[in-house]
Amino acid sequence: KGWDFTRRLLVFQRHWVYMLGFGLPSALSTFIFPQFLGLGVYALAFPISIIFAVTSTPVQHEPTKLFPRNLSMFFFAEYVTLGIVRQIKLRLLPRGPSSSS
Q1: Quick one: CA dihedral 57, 60, 64, 69, positive or negative?
Q2: Global pTM value
């Protein structure tokens, strides 16, 4: 669709329940069944999932205690990065008016 990374990430974060439901059944089939059978189920389920994904419109779910509205994928990375930037800022900037007499 010509979307930039920020827009794609925002769509994924808003519709994360839809995305989870899209890939989870196919992925679980490879773990539940023996290898040959699981791959066969995956090979049948994946094209059907693609057809459903193309024809459907994801709806944003209502937030609950268990499922938040948006899933912040980079929360930990943002938290750590902002903490580092704050520490650098505190160390580099002066701590207020200097009292030189």
Answers
A1: positive
A2: 0.50
Cα→Cα distances 16→4, 25, 29, 78, 94, Å: 18, 15, 20, 19, 43
Instruction: Report pLDDT for 100.
Output: 52
More confident site: 98 or 78? 78
How far is residue 98's CA from residue 2's CA, in Å, rounded to a whole number? Answer: 52
Are 46 and 38 in contact by the 8 Å Cβ rule? The answer is: no
Distance CA 25, CA 58 (A): 17
Q: Please, are residues 60 and 14 in contact by the beta-carbon 8 Å criterion?
A: yes
